[in-house]
Amino acid sequence: MRVLGLMSGTSADGIDVALARVTGKGKKLRAQLEDFCTVPYPSEVRRAVLRIANAGPNRILSVAEISQLNFVLGELAADAIQRACRRFSVSLKRIDLIGSHGQTVYHRGRRGRFLGRQAASTLQLGEAAVIAERTGRPVVANFRPRDMAAGGQGAPLVPFVDYLLYRHPRRGRAALNIGGIANVTLIPPLASPGEVLAFDTGPGNMVVDGVIERATGGRQKFDRAGSLAARGRPREKVLRRLLRHPYFRRHPPKSAGREQFGGKYVDKVMSLLKGASTADKARTATELTVLSIRDAFDRFVPERMGIREVILGGGGVRNKFLVQRLCEVLPALNFIPAGELGVDEKAKEAFAFAVLAYQTWNGEPGALPSATGARHKVVLGCIVPGGKNQLSTA
Amino acid sequence: MRVLGLMSGTSADGIDVALARVTGKGKKLRAQLEDFCTVPYPSEVRRAVLRIANAGPNRILSVAEISQLNFVLGELAADAIQRACRRFSVSLKRIDLIGSHGQTVYHRGRRGRFLGRQAASTLQLGEAAVIAERTGRPVVANFRPRDMAAGGQGAPLVPFVDYLLYRHPRRGRAALNIGGIANVTLIPPLASPGEVLAFDTGPGNMVVDGVIERATGGRQKFDRAGSLAARGRPREKVLRRLLRHPYFRRHPPKSAGREQFGGKYVDKVMSLLKGASTADKARTATELTVLSIRDAFDRFVPERMGIREVILGGGGVRNKFLVQRLCEVLPALNFIPAGELGVDEKAKEAFAFAVLAYQTWNGEPGALPSATGARHKVVLGCIVPGGKNQLSTA
Q1: What share of chain B is helix, strand, coil (3-state, %, to 5)?
Q2: Helices A206-215, A263-272: inter-axial angle, 10-degree rounding
Q3: Among A165, A229, B44, B280, which residue carries the largest CB count within 10 Å?
Q4: Helix or strand or coil: residue B82?
Q5: Mind telling me how many Å the CA of B42 is from chain A's nearest CA?
Q6: How far is it, in rounded angstroms, from Cα A223 to Cα A216?
Q7: How far is A102 from chain B (nearest CA, A)?
Q8: How far apart are the CA of B279 and the nearest CA of chain A, in angstroms?
């Protein structure tokens, strides 16, 4: 099957589109990335998404805004598919299935009291019915709620795909993905799905980007190649304090997001770093990511897993200084860019939702209970039937 | 197939559950209501739903609230299914499929500008993944968006089921459903789906209930059997003014909701009726429903449709005075309670979503473009796979 995977990350830059070819089932499942591109959001859409998502639980907005944004993001996803197909030189008619993650605007992995019930919840926008109607192809969407209904955190989901891609007969491997949040998947040699462990280690680029943006008054959105951090020195006292965040000590399974490391947290970091140079601020924020990842390996990766290789993916890989620091603080591990094993790091998540859509389409489970904390394996998401192609694609 | 249909109306009282047996396909499709019950919402849930739904577009709330409510309503729907199955004395294992409409918290049938795009949208809460996980049965949900993606208003959807139930070889029939909003489906003799016309006429019980609740300071929620209205006299001048609402003149297809006739509109009606007795207020609001329905028949039902019978459904049927007035103002039509033709009026909408789920499950369209205004027929909704039964049903 030729499957498109769509992902819109927490940074709300746009829509990643991966073209995958997937065949087989179970242990014989094979998935290959054929092409990839990113279609940016219009700036007003990005602002609207961030305003809704990047906020505490008491943010004020209107239900109209959420409902309308859901449909507009569906239209933008359909546009992105059309543009991607043109760029990939593949006709939409030759696409068998679409997997669309959507744009997360809320995620609460752990249950809390609400209206007299215990509830965790998650909310992704980007109406799949709009995508199916515009493209005429069946769409699998809403991947996270089912795992949460089964007691899981609905995240991380990519580990299942890491497992499929990276399991090795003799080598223990960790897949480390550095997006806004950093997550790791631990795959012992010859692992069965139940032996895989995965969790979010904490901030990836989220805090670094936030600090850079504020320290430069918005002139820079991120630390290109880590050049700022490379020139700075970490504020040790601040760093020690930041590393005492209770999230870092919590045992997996666990997942993190803007709730822990979003705007409010960046405010706190900025106030602790008051008076420091921009380079020192960048360095301290970068060290927070680096050392929280190191601590996660020290605390939660048992020796018996035999992890020797780390496959490195996500946008954070472009931060050369961050990668260099990771190699320094975890000297026993061999770091390999994800691209070298077949899937470019940028394309990883979008590719994952193509594979997960394929699983759902075939009635196969798509989450690792050992990663999400669910009570059992579940088939993820919902299926929107295809139909006549309503796009005027060439 | 044995299919459960779930509906939560705009009044947010609770969840209607219908048990239907559906067989065949196309012209041979046969659907029968086997049982029905209503499971009320806890009062705090009802309040939360009304607070979110019964509000203008600038209502302030949090995305957390919407996300959490979505999951809690999913849990409540699963509970309602469990209770209904016990009451119906049918094991959940013998249910083949569930159709869940969910709780509408926003509906904008006509397109408007949003973030630089034209968008209509709708938002139903009651996470289907939770229902599927708790019951182990496949769930069809999110019925409205696909029709809207195809240019329709996403409503009304019940007309398709009216058409299946009530088409007659010689008689032209209208199915009039009086819920919060009143809607009518016009089915000429021997009609094909394309010849059916359906639209919302305007307020059903929504304005009457709102007026009664305010006029009695909350002691009464509705006019039982219409006894208050029966004792009152209509304020003719106010009535004429209310009947000039532009909605009544707009040509079908059209759909109405709280946006037009909700709390704000009731405020206006109350201020126009200032000084009138409670009975006169009740009577005037009741006449608004009655005369707006009469006007709709006069304006939009062409003689060539040969409509002679009106099949009357919805909670408004219990308002005897309202029904009596309808018979008086439309003397040429023969009024028949929906219950007499096989489906109890209370059960109608829930039953409809069982039939529509069956259609989707079989890859068949479930909306009438002539009713919704869509450019073409579409398969409605999305399908959440079943799984192991996770309920501890007896």
Answers
A1: 45, 25, 30
A2: 60
A3: A229
A4: helix
A5: 9
A6: 10
A7: 15
A8: 36
**Whether the Cβ atoms of residue B351 and residue B179 lie closer than 8 Å to each other:** no
Q: Which of B62, B130, B378 sits opposite A387 (nearest CB)?
A: B378
State whether B148 and A71 contact (CB < 8 Å). Answer: yes
Q: In 3D, which of A233, A225, A164 has the Cα closest to residue A198? A: A164
Q: Would you call B89 exposed, middle or buried from its count of C-beta atoms within 10 A (0-12, 13-18, 19+)?
A: exposed
Residues on chain A touching B145 (C-beta within 8 angstroms)? 71, 127, 129-130
Please give the Cα distance from A181 to A153 (Å, whole number): 15
Q: Pairing between strand A307-313 and A334-337?
A: parallel
- Which of A117, A122, A140 should one mutate to test binding to chain B, selecting the residue with the greatest count of B CBs within 10 A? A117
A25's tokens: 């089932």
Q: Which of A322, A306, A316, A313 is nearest to A340 (CA)?
A: A313
DSSP percent split of chain A into helix, strand, coil, nearest 5:
45, 25, 30
Model ipTM over 0.85: no
Mention every residue, 6+ apart, whose C-beta is less than 8 A from residue B368: B159, B160, B163, B193, B194, B196, B198, B377
Cis status of the peptide bond prior to A156, with omega within 30 of 0 = yes
* Alpha-carbon radius of gyration of chain A: 20
Q: Say which of A66, A120, A384 has its CB closest to residue B63.
A: A66
Contacts for B85 with CB less than 8 Å, ≥ 6 apart: B91, B92, B95, B393
Work out the number of other CB atoms within 10 angstroms of the CB of residue A247: 16
In chain B, which residues have their Cβ closer than 8 Å to the Cβ of A149? Answer: 71, 74, 127, 129-130, 132-134
DSSP of B105-144: EEEEEEEEEETTEEEEEEEEES-HHHHHHHH-S-EEE--H
Q: Does residue A253 have a cis peptide bond before it, meaning omega lies within 30 degrees of 0? A: yes
Of all residues in chain B, the one with the smallest CA distance to A114 is B68
**What backbone phi and psi angles, to 5 degrees, belong to B127?**
-50, 115
DSSP per position, B192-236 = -GGG-EEEEEEESSHHHHHHHHHHTTTS-SS-GGGHHHHHS---H
The residue written with tokens 């959105």 in the block is A221
Phi and psi at B212, nearest 5°, equal -60, -45
- In 3D space, the residue among A224, A239, A204, A227 whose CA is nearest the CA of residue A279 turns out to be A227
Please state, in angstroms and rounded to a whole number, the distance separating the CA atoms of residues A163 and A352.
11
Omega cis (within 30) before B253 = yes
Asked if the Cβ–Cβ distance from A149 to B129 is below 8 Å, we say yes
Is A127–B149 a contact, with Cβ atoms under 8 angstroms apart? Answer: yes
CA A128 to chain centroid, in Å, comes to 19
Mean pLDDT of A148-176: 91
Is B323 within 8 Å of B335 (Cβ atoms)? yes
Q: What CA dihedral angle connects B127, B129, B135 and B140, to 10 degrees?
A: 80
Q: Which of A122, A149, A363 sits opposite B385 (nearest CB)?
A: A363
Give, in degrees to the nearest 5, the angle at Cα A133 between A128 and A349.
35
Number of other CB atoms surrounding residue B22 within 10 Å: 24
Distance CA A202, CA A248 (A): 7
pLDDT in tens, B323-382: 999 999 999 999 998 878 778 778 889 999 999 999 999 999 999 998 899 999 999 999
pTM of the model: 0.82
Q: Kindly state the DSSP code that residue A177 receives in the 8-state scheme.
A: E
CA–CA gap between residue A304 and residue A310 (Å, rounded): 16
Highest mean pLDDT among A131-135, A387-391, B166-170, B363-367: A131-135
Token look-up 């919590």 returns: A250
Give the SS3 label for residue B38: strand
